[in-house]
Design brief:
With 481 residues, the protein is of the alpha/beta class. The chain contains 18 helices and 21 strands. Helix 1 packs across helix 2, helix 2 runs parallel beside helix 4 (173-185) and helix 10 crosses helix 12 (318-334).
């Protein structure tokens, strides 16, 4: 299914979008990637959604990417005798390991690992940052705090600790069970929540055993500080602005978003911008102007994908939300300023033959009337390198592996086409021009750029380029063998 844009759209599935008909309609409207939120739903429910997505993929002949988002460690206070209390600025409030019901002076925080990391002056944020506490004195099983910003605190509200690296296991027992389940199910990407250090990613990779690509969610200050190390061991990145905006000043989030997107683009790894992109569309069929500008900004920055969360999972207007994103993306990418920004922010990378090949393909496409860049790939590396260049023409990724095609459906500008196994470059050229014509990217009188690695089926071996006519008779006339 050919889109009229390069950026991809991620739609989260939930109660508002858990039927076959709705999933199909979301895909036809513009969703390229479906997110399964492992924080909600049983394994049976996740399995049913996965099966419906794959059935839509089969019916439509599209390559659809499935992203399973692991819950990660959830830090929450205990319960209150009165269910909630009002904390007043300047008051004292104690957090401890006592399981007794809380009151206006204290509550249980059943996470000894937090107390182990706290120090005098540390901040604790409760209920998405609406309440801010400052640690005055702490020990192995308690923290006496001053209420800096007051508000209503109630049962099991979430806690953020922004200014320390918590000695938490990278994956909870639930995460480990969920990871094994979705890998066996056959998802394409795993999103890792609350990543703090590269070791968190490496632990997940050892468990995934190559069955899914790993996407690190950047939502803590410690992850921002060690971003380059985390990026190096990740297959992709999600800029999860919700928790970032809680643990950091909200004014710091936009420049962080820009820096992270640029770094991902420079190394050719997919990056998703997520959280509250069209939040008002949970209840309204129309977005705010600010939300439209927010989506447009991520697209102007060159993000691979923009994501809907509750808007498509639990909102009243999931189809309208996807359509809005689709319309904004099409309009932005038609803007000449978009091309100028993308090309001005392109990072030169010529560290090897494969890099030189994709750069040459992009430059040929920009200086001639070539209609598409066709790349043959097994692992997806050639397609990712081509997408890194952000060419002005469509990218057609041809692969015999369905798993590779589905994973690449997340990447900017990549249109995936399944093909047979090939052993000769001429066959690859013929397959490429047929795909370009069949998918509506080129006509008989046009030309395409074909890049591949010879010998075939060797990851990272991109070493050959040809500008090919889309008339097969001309291919055979030029190369009768």
């Amino acid at each position: 299914m050919r889109r009229q844009r390069n950026v991809k759209i991620v739609a989260t599935l939930g109660p508002a979008s858990d039927t076959y008909e709705m999933i199909k309609l979301l895909h036809e409207t513009g969703a390229d990637v479906f997110r399964l939120n492992m924080s909600h739903g049983s394994h049976d429910e996740i399995r049913a959604k996965h099966a419906m997505i794959r059935a839509v993929e089969e019916e439509t002949g599209s390559s659809i990417c499935i992203l399973a988002d692991l819950q990660g460690p959830k830090l929450r206070v205990g319960v209150f005798a009165a269910e909630s209390e009002e904390l007043v600025e300047g008051a004292a409030f104690r957090l401890d390991l006592d399981s007794a019901e809380g009151d206006v002076s204290r509550v249980c925080l059943p996470h000894p690992e937090i107390f182990a990391a706290l120090k005098e002056g540390s901040s604790l944020l409760v209920n998405d940052g609406k309440i801010r506490l400052k640690v005055v004195r702490c020990g192995a099983d308690f923290a006496e705090c001053e209420v800096v910003i007051g508000g209503t605190i109630s049962n099991r509200k979430g806690v953020n600790v922004p200014d320390v690296v918590l000695p938490l296991a990278a994956l909870s027992d639930k995460d480990r069970a969920d990871l094994e389940f979705v890998c066996e199910l056959g998802v394409d990407w795993l999103a890792l929540s609350f990543v703090q250090r590269p070791e968190d990613v490496e632990e997940a990779r050892a468990l995934a055993k190559g069955r899914a690509a790993l996407l690190s969610k950047i939502e803590k200050p410690s992850a921002v500080e060690r971003f380059d190390d985390i990026l190096a061991v990740s297959d992709g990145i999600m800029v999860a602005r919700g928790d970032l905006g809680v643990e950091l000043p909200v004014s710091a989030v936009p420049p962080i978003q820009k820096r992270l997107v640029r770094r991902c683009r420079a190394v050719g790894k997919p990056v998703i911008v997520a959280t509250q992109m069209l939040e008002s569309m949970i209840e309204s069929p129309m977005p705010t102007r600010a939300e439209v500008s927010d989506v447009a900004t991520a697209i102007y920055e060159g993000a691979d994908a923009v994501m809907l969360s509750a808007e498509s999972a639990a909102g009243s207007y999931p189809i309208e939300a996807v359509k809005t994103m689709d319309n904004v993306a099409i309009e932005v990418e038609r803007d000449p300023t978009y091309t100028q920004i993308i090309e001005a922010s392109r990072t030169a990378s010529r560290s090897g033959i494969a890099d030189a090949m994709v750069v040459a393909a992009r430059e040929i496409a920009e200086t001639t009337d070539v209609k598409a860049i066709c790349c043959f790939t097994h692992s997806g590396t050639t397609a990712l390198l081509t997408a890194r260049e952000r060419p002005r023409v469509p990218i057609i990724a041809l692969t015999p592996l369905k798993r590779t095609a589905s994973r690449l459906a997340l990447s900017w500008g990549v249109n995936c086409v399944l093909t047979e196994e090939l052993d000769r470059f001429k066959k690859a050229v013929v397959s490429a021009v047929r795909a370009a014509r069949n998918e509506g990217f080129a006509e008989e009188q046009d030309h395409v750029v074909v890049i591949a690695g010879v010998p075939f089926n060797v990851p990272g071996s991109t070493n050959i380029l040809r500008v090919a006519p889309c008339d097969e008779r001309l291919i055979f006339a030029a190369d009768p063998e």
